[in-house]
Amino acid sequence: MTERNIEKHGMQPGDNPGPDGRFGRHGGRFVPETLIPALEELAEIYQDQINNPSFQKTLQHHLTSYVGRPTPLTRARRLERELGAKVYFKREDLTHTGAHKINNTLGQVLLARRMGRKRIIAETGAGQHGVATATAAALFGLECIVYMGQEDIERQRLNVFRMELLGATVVPVQSGSQTLKDAINEAIRDWVTNVDDSYYVIGSVVGPHPYPVMVRDFQRIVGDEARSQLQSEEGRLPDFVVACVGGGSNAMGTFYPFVRDRNVRLVGVEAGGQGLDNMRHSASLTAGDPGVLHGAMTYLLQDEDGQIIPAHSVSAGLDYPGVGPEHAFWKDADRVEYVTADDADALQGFAWLAETEGIIPALEPAHAIGHLKNLPLHEIDGEALILVCLSGRGDKDVAQVARLTTEEEIDYEL
Amino acid sequence: MIMSCERGETMQNRLLTCLEELHTRKEGALVGYLPAGDPNVKTSIDAMDAVIRGGADILEIGIPFSDPLADGPAIQAAGVRALQTGFRLDCAFETAWSLRQRHSTVPILLMTYANPVLRCGPAVFAKKARRAGADGLLIPDVPLEETGPFEAACLEEDLILVSFAAPTTGRTRLQAIASGARGFVYTVALTGVTGSEAGPHGHLRRCVETLKNAGSPPVMVGFGVSTPQDVQDLAGIGDGVVVGTTFVRTLQQSLAEDPQSAMEGVRRLAQDLKNALRVR
Predict the structure, then answer these.
(1) Whether the Cβ atoms of residue A208 and residue A187 lie closer than 8 Å to each other
(2) What's the predicted TM-score (pTM) here?
(3) A357-369: pLDDT as tens digits
(4) B265: helix, coil or strand?
(5) Of A23, A10, A7, nearest in space to A252 by CA
(6) CA-based, 20 to 30 A from A293: which of A219, A308, A359, B119?
(7) Helix-helix angle A325-332:A2-9, to 10 degrees
(8) Residue B79 contacts A, CB cutoff 8 Å
């Protein structure tokens, strides 16, 4: 079925979707009619602006002088010795606000400004995308409303305060499971109500067309930079590119510039949570089924009746029951290997990078780090070259890790 | 299960018959919505029965969904209550069937989101709906471009997939919606979710006129329609109204105040709303 579908659409990984926003059988636009004209307008303006030299010049200016790009590529020499392969980290943790999220929010807020929108809406789970959106909105003096699940607000007090410092209004979401998926529902409800004057900044490569394409294009700078940095360091392409996948924006941004290089193995690491058997995980590509959530067809965690099952992960940023539709297509096309790292793997990865390299990673990329020891390095002739996206810094997670490692006795020693 | 109420192969879809009769009688249509399973399956069936007895011409049964992004707080909360009691998809079909046995001619529509239909398989879902005595489906997160598999499944089972229009929809697109629509076009009165209090959008009248000029079937106006006054205000614009949130609230309030006469409160609301549609 999978192959037939790809053949029918004649689409290859790396190709852009047509006006229907379909990546093979995934993607599309499953939203109420009220939003369709706004999505059509957005797709049109986006196409226009992304190719517009003045838009690109403004974006590049802010990425350099405000975000701090290009971010470094750091070789991990002590970790390498333990792993037995050459490893480079793409340092998105060193951006302003400390994660890759800002690449996207800056691009989208610039777009909103060009569209004359004065009110910015966003959703947030752990608060990273909310902080990045509030930051971009503050930079351009726009009103910013961030929807956040009540449960997440209680878990991430500090980020709530950060957003408020940045002038944003944080609206608690008390519907459903009171987490990220419900915050997205609520942001869409706000957008459907205020569609005439508001702009919705979605936080990952999810949602209805053109969001998955747009967010990917704003994040591909991660992979573009890494590719050319690796070329000058090593003079060759990596054997493996590894990134964590929740909604999938850092993985999409890192993988996309390599997706047509068939010899580069792309490995997306989903959150295995407490294990795939008990449904307490966030592995929608590995263990989910196709369906429609938040405007797109993609792999989802759902029950027999098509009700969405809340995701679980030690890392709030991966805690999402869906995934970007382009990842779903890449899975069907067998272009990317999607695997899982559970909570314990992530905590090990967290401690490992801190001890060996003096870098405290966010719990999200800690999943990618935790998976490194499971890569099939023996399948590579000679010394393997690995690129890992270090999508964010771990300051936000330090208190939680301290709590987990002392109270629950999870063994995070390697 | 006695299948005597299932529509025969030759019988016209009840929704089409009903709309023709309303047209002849020059009456506005009242489409009454309640979510299945709230607060439990039996009570919700009795409440839907009261909506029909009060005078609703068409019944819309909401299927509880975990992520109802077109619905406001009242209907979301109703869905959560239903799912918490262990509501399963088959309970929705049983609900429809139970009402079909009590009311042989009233059109019954099932309102759901795309995912439960896709999970079940559109063909199986449509077959179950038809067997339960339903006449059509409403899926608010399936716009024109995505209707393919849903429309095909409905056609196979002689169900009507209701089309949606919005005040934000442009002229050309409204014309495309009008020409493809069967049964009626559900036009949302405002930009927002069910139960909004913002009042009708400034473009609503123009939207309905464009649909009509393009040869649309009857146009029903929904979202934010709650009082007989709202109904009267809108009666001149479309061919009828869809009312949901007010029924949910009235049922909940009546049950809290006096469970014995709760259904009478729901019935009277339907009656008042329908009376407002007779004055045209």
Answers:
(1) no
(2) 0.95
(3) 999 999 999 999 9
(4) helix
(5) A23
(6) A219
(7) 110
(8) no
